[in-house]
Design a protein that fits this description.
Blueprint (H helix, E strand, L loop, with lengths): L2 E6 L4 H12 L6 E8 L2 E8 L2 H9 L8 E7 L14 E2 L5 E9 L2 H10 L9 H13 L5 H11 L2 E9 L6 E6 L4 E4 L4 E4 L11 E4 L4 E5 L4 E5 L11 E2 L15 H7 L1 H9 L3 E2 L8 E2 L2 H4 L6 E6 L1 H16 L5 E5 H4 L11 E7 L5 H12 L3 E6 L5 H5 L2 E4 L12 H21 L4 H36 L4 E6 L4 H15 L2 E6 L17 E5 L5 H12 L5 E5 L9 E4 L9 H18 L18
Helix pairs in contact: 3-4, 4-5, 6-17, 7-13, 7-14, 9-13, 9-15, 13-14, 14-17, 15-17
The protein binds fructose -6-phosphate (F6R).
Length: 612
Amino acid sequence: MCGIIGYAGHRPAVPVVVEGLRRLEYRGYDSAGVAFAGHDGLHVLRAKGKLAALEERLAGEVITTATCAMGHTRWATHGVPAERNAHPHTSNDGRLALVHNGIIENYQEIKSRLTAAGYVFHSETDTEVLVNLIAEKRKTAPSLLEAFAAALREAHGAYAVCLMDTDAPGSILAARMSAPLLFGLGTGENFVASDIPAFLPYTRQVIFLEDGEIVRATANGYEILRLADLSPVQREAQTIQWDMQAAQKGGYRHFMLKEIFEQPRVITDGLAGRLDNAGGQQACSVLLPELDDLPVPERLHIVACGTSYHSGLWGRHLLEEWAGLPVQVEIASEFRYREGLALGQKDMVLVISQSGETADTLAALRIARERGVQTLGLCNVVGSSIAREASAVIYTQAGPEISVASTKAMCSQMLMLALMALYWAQRRGSMDSQARQARLSQLESLPALLDAALPDMHATARQLARKYAQADSFFYLGRGHCFPLALEGALKLKELSYIHAEGYAAGEMKHGPIALIDPDFPTFTLALDDTLFPKVRSNIVEVQARQGKVIALSNPGMDLSVDDLWLVPPLPAPLAGFVALPALQLFSYEMADYLGKDVDQPRNLAKSVTVE
Ligand code: F6R
């Protein structure tokens, strides 16, 4: 949801900012803009479309030797993607420029007041309202900082903002409230940004700003202040361990493909330090020290959005089966508005989020906290809002996920859910140690198994994608632990290739959806070797009886007759999901690529959804 970068330093600032925007483009990419401080005042340049359009505009300009600048890449919330709605927005007096990620909920009311006072608006954005509110406050405030804080105190909603002022050309002011913003501490240069890759080539020293904090930075200094009273905040910088290579394509055509192929490594990294072999050869127990101080929940509520929600649905099977925990899984945007939500004091709310910033998931977490319930975050982004606000956090350690469509993050979430199920099974004594060891060695075998299988899976996905690329619609069917994967397969196909796809529980088809089946409406079925296979096979036959074409993802030796049988290496259920998942991802990837779609940045989407 919009990417922000601000820079005050000693280098030519515009290239630094544009390069930072390139690494933030996954957050939104319908328009982009920069502001920089020249000797003759603030310059603002904006363009509709991807960053390349802005770069073209910049090529035609004489970029000054400005050493202070800020930039923005947008995912539209107010107003269509257009140059007039692109950020930065300037105040009517031309002295201030602002970039913003988030939504100011009361902007209409503020706009009416400002309009009555003579302000004129050139865009439909809430950001232009906010920058003019700061300008208005400045007329009476003792300093720009006070005006900035006063305006933000009036703004309701979520924001991460960065402000530049003609009168202070070497400094930036930034603030956050329910939207991500980090401070990068360099040598003779400082940064603010929505995400670490924006400034990682220049510094690994990061300060995670909290909600309701302002940072004021120049090339050689900075201060962090509380928005409420401008009192100073002392906070240590943290050192980021991963490097830029982790955030680059590494020879793959797309980030998505690279991230799918990273899944064996994600599993290896996720298991590292988590298994205890108690001196023997074989891993016999799971180490999750993050959970040691929390009581085993009597009931677990898993709350998440999108792909993370699908991980939660998958994880429920393991948590119920292995740990014997009652589990509910809910979409965060529904959970947060449930009037009659029943949360017991011994319940736990587990929120799953790759970004750790998803607005609905964060709101669900806050509701649980207000209700005094234990909260646990399962996040990938270290230091993200969810990671900081939950009672405990488990990091998925998948490394930066750049492609907008989530792939390796789901694999890492599934792995951690499996470890959590085994860990709680251990504490509750609900699984004997032999069964636990068997599960653990299956998990340990996964990286090698996937490494060996992925190239063939990729080739099959490519061949099938070409065969089925003309379809307008798809069904994805699965039962039990494969049902969440069917939902995920359908989500991936629609978000990447824009082909309509529905994920269904295979047994539910006959209650209505089967009416859609005809020779041009193919069905992708997960028919793995598990106890539900005979039921799934019957559902396949029902589809075939309506002349529907069927692709079945299955294992060698299964008795199945379909149009396209895609065999993957067997693994006992439910861990077979780790093999099925990349097959589904590769099929969607190949379909989108073959159809010429923008794989890493699909239309209308953004990586981190920080608005409701
Ligand atoms: C789909 C996708 C989204 C996210 C969802 C939640 O490929 O990426 O559905 O899974 O927006 O995001 P996080 O996990 O960051 O909370």
